[in-house]
């Protein structure tokens, strides 16, 4: 077993004390935090490959499902699943506490008509707010429906929580059968994961006769990868020859990629000199990173120029005169990497075209370079999760995962999101909570919320409202005078206008009201009297009429003055003009209304502290 570093031990102890069961991979890398969840499973188990699986947990909703025909599934984690019915909301997630780092995430999906519906469900899957898989009619082939399929991705996790979410298309119920997270070297695959990129597997295969890898065979891969046979991809099956060796391969299992030695101990070649071609299904809207794996394991090859070939991708030669023996000799790792861009077809053609001898390949990986989607501001995420816990939001509202991302999904119900100033982050700009009629307590303090308090807040069963220390402005709505309210905290804002007697009475009849540190509240004891301009929380009708009359009178006086000036000008030939300095400086003059706060005798600060409770102070 690999030695556990101090930070890993500390993290495991921290998660254990928080109630998270933790499992470290007994494998030879320094990045060995691994957790495997049997979705829908009821008990922990260890499989024949010494992998530990834990019972289903860390989910936000859904139900357990036992598949009807379990005998046809080879592995225990494939026999159950978790389904997320639409009645529990359109968005559900697994939220798993993990150390920050780069992870290999693998999931198993199977339908097997467990619910006797007419079709397999359509849904999207996101990791850390980026959609990585879409399960629809094209993905649900007959084999995938009956026997299931694995999908995997490499992704960075930076907030100590791996968030994997499932989003219903229409009214279908998303599902998942197994979930694995394996921490890997952060510098793997040329450090591309440092560039806000996720690597989505679009094909990973061995040149050997059978599949192998973590949890699939005794020949493992310490990073968790599984390698399919290339038979589903090759166009050269008729003259296919598989070479094998038990001899050790130099430079296998090396950091940062830890490609397994078994991969290079098998190779696909041809019985005669011919082109070896693979056809890989892709989404042409994305770019792809191809990794070619070679080792010259044919004992007949003992010198350079005995096996030479070109690598052609989509009709273009990307590597010319590849000579494995010349580069590294026999029984040694030789890898090449190429990024395919600006593709137009849904199938990527990869050819090994010979110059001398038949071409040979040990394995091939094809990863979509998926840009990480714009996330929500972490401060907003933390605040919204706190609100969710405080409000006991029901499952059907789908308040799970990132409140705003992915952007092509609906945001949390009642939440409106927009791009921040940098366009590299999403921010919450509107939260509609007045429709939550069964809400008892609302605490949105210390969140820098701007705008006015919505009319209607305070109705229903609400007893506690804490909106303190934000940037709220405007009047206090009448709805915050509800007889059910016992605590109203509005201090530390920019509120103005008349405070109703009903709100004041909450504080003097056993409740608690704090209105201190606001702009210009008035109208109740300990606050200044409101001017005649105010009626309730708004400007009175009489005031509006008076202002209108004043404006009309001012206009009339201006017209009279202008008439007199014109008359004098005509009669005395007098030219009227402003002094030069005044005219030039006057053009740029702007007037700013300054908000005032009344200061009372004995009050040493410009603010008046207004706290009403049973004792009247």
Automatic annotation (TrEMBL):
Keywords: Membrane, Signal, Transmembrane, Transmembrane helix. It is a single-pass membrane protein. InterPro entries: Leu-rich_rpt, LRR_dom_sf, Malectin-like_Carb-bd_dom. Residues 585-617 are annotated as: Disordered. The keyword Lyase does not apply. Gene3D superfamilies: Galactose-binding lectin, Ribonuclease Inhibitor. One of its GO terms (cellular component) is membrane. It holds the Pfam family Malectin_like. It is found in: Membrane. Residues 1-18 form the signal peptide. The chain crosses the membrane at residues 545-566. Residues 37-368 form the Malectin-like domain. This is Malectin-like domain-containing protein. The lineage of its organism: Eukaryota, Viridiplantae, Streptophyta, Embryophyta, Tracheophyta.
């Amino acid at each position: 077993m690999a030695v556990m570093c101090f930070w890993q031990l500390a993290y495991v102890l921290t998660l254990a004390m928080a109630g998270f069961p933790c499992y470290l991979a007994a494998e030879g890398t320094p990045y060995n935090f691994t957790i495997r969840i049997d979705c829908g499973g009821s008990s922990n188990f260890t499989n024949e490959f010494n992998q530990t699986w834990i019972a289903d947990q860390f989910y936000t909703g859904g139900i357990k499902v036992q598949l009807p025909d379990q005998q046809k599934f080879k592995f225990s984690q494939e026999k159950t699943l978790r389904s997320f019915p639409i009645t529990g909301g359109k968005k559900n997630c697994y939220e798993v506490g993990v150390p920050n780092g780069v992870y290999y995430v693998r999931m198993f999906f199977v339908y097997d008509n467990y619910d006797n519906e007419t079709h397999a469900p359509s849904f999207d899957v996101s990791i850390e707010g980026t959609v990585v898989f879409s399960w629809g009619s094209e993905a649900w082939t007959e084999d995938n429906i009956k026997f299931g399929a694995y999908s995997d991705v490499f992704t960075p996790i930076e907030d100590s929580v791996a968030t994997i979410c499932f989003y219903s298309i229409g009214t279908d119920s998303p599902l998942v059968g197994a979930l694995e997270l394996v921490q890997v070297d952060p510098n793997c695959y040329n450090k591309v994961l440092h560039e806000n990129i996720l690597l989505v597997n679009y094909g990973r295969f061995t040149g050997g006769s059978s599949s192998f890898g973590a949890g699939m065979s005794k020949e493992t891969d310490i990073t968790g990868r599984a390698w399919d046979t290339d038979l589903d991809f090759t166009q050269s099956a008729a003259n296919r020859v598989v070479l094998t060796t038990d001899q050790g391969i130099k430079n296998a299992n090396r950091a940062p990629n830890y490609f397994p030695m078994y991969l290079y101990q098998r190779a696909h070649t041809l019985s005669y000199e011919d082109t070896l071609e693979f056809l890989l299904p892709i989404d042409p809207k994305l770019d792809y990173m191809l990794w070619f794996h070679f080792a010259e394991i044919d004992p007949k090859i003992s010198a350079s120029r005995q096996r030479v070939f070109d690598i052609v991708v989509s009709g273009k030669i990307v590597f010319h005169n590849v000579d494995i023996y010349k580069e590294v000799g026999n029984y040694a790792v030789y890898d090449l990497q190429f990024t395919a861009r600006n593709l137009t077809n849904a199938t990527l053609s990869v050819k090994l075209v010979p110059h001398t001898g038949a071409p040979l390949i040990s394995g091939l990986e094809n990863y979509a370079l998926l840009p990480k989607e714009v996330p929500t501001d972490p401060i907003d995420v933390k605040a919204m999760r706190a609100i969710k816990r405080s409000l006991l939001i029901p499952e059907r509202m789908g308040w799970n995962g990132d409140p705003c991302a992915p952007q092509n999904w609906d945001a949390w119900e009642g939440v409106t999101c927009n791009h921040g100033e940098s366009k590299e982050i999403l921010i919450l700009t509107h939260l509609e909570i007045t429709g939550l009629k069964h809400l008892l307590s609302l605490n949105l303090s210390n969140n820098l919320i701007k705008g006015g308090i919505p009319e209607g807040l305070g109705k229903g069963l609400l007893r506690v409202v804490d909106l303190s220390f934000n940037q709220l402005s405007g009047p206090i709505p009448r709805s915050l005078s509800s007889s059910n309210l016992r605590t109203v905290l509005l201090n530390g804002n920019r509120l103005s206008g008349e405070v109703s007697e009903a709100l004041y009475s909450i504080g003097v009849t056993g409740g608690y009201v704090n209105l201190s540190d606001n702009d210009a509240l008035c109208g109740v004891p300990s606050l200044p009297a409101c001017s005649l301009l105010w009626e309730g929380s708004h400007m009175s009708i009489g005031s509006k009429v008076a202002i209108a009359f004043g404006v009309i009178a001012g206009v009339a006086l201006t017209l009279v003055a202008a008439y007199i000036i014109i008359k004098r000008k005509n009669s005395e030939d007098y030219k009227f003009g402003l002094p030069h300095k005044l005219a030039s400086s006057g053009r740029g003059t702007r007037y700013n209304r300054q908000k005032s706060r009344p200061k009372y005798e004995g009050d040493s600060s410009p603010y008046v502290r207004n706290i009403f409770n049973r004792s009247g102070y």
